[in-house]
Amino acid sequence: MKKIILSVLIVSMAFAVNAQDIPERKTGKPGMHHKMDRKKGSRMDMQKLNLTEEQKAQFKTQRESFRKQMEELKKNENITVKDQKERIAAIQKENKTKMQSFLTADQKAQIERNKVEGKKKFEERTKERGGKMKTQLGLSDAQSAQLKKNREATQQKIKAIKENSKMNEEQKKEQVKKLMKAQQENMKSVLTEDQLKK
Predict the structure, then answer these.
(1) How far apart are CA 169 and CA 27, in angstroms?
(2) Which of 14, 18, 86, 114 has the fewest Cβ atoms surrounding its Cβ within 10 A?
(3) For residues 136 and 85, what is the distance between their CA atoms, to the nearest angstrom?
(4) Is the model's pTM score more than 0.90?
(5) Where do the domains of the chain lie?
(6) Which residues, in sequence order, are CB contacts of 18 under 8 Å at separation 6+?
(7) Residues 84-111: tens digit of each pLDDT
(8) Which of 144, 124, 141, 136 lies closest to 187 in space, CA to CA?
């Protein structure tokens, strides 16, 4: 039960991290949480954009170009880790800029609406999960409030990391991983031994 609860929290936090991503931001890199769910969500988001055939072709060409650049970079053994990370960040930034250039102002506005809608749905699911967790573990009101406070603080920190223009994507991912570990440890400090066993 402990693993299930930790997994639920990790999933909810991972979704929060990804909820703000726009469809064209996918990197195709392994290790991304819930890749299938995000792909499904991205397909739905793309359908809401009502892309023209020309736009679809542009997106496809750009995705292939991006994938090729990343593969070539990974094959390059004569590059330092630091240089590779900087190059990855530059390729990702260039890819995002190009992808956004294919969209109309209305489509960009739709993406923003999708973000707001996704955030609202996420908050509803988080509240529902919190209620289930409270019932299943027999959490006190104080414990429930503390877990909620910790969750919200972590979400704010993740948001700040995502908005930090001084960090590249790799650095942001590393910082988010650290926050998630801290969130887990924080949760352990709030729950009793019996609740952790459950």
Answers:
(1) 10
(2) 86
(3) 43
(4) no
(5) 2-16+53-197
(6) 33, 34, 38
(7) 888 998 999 999 999 999 999 999 999 8
(8) 144
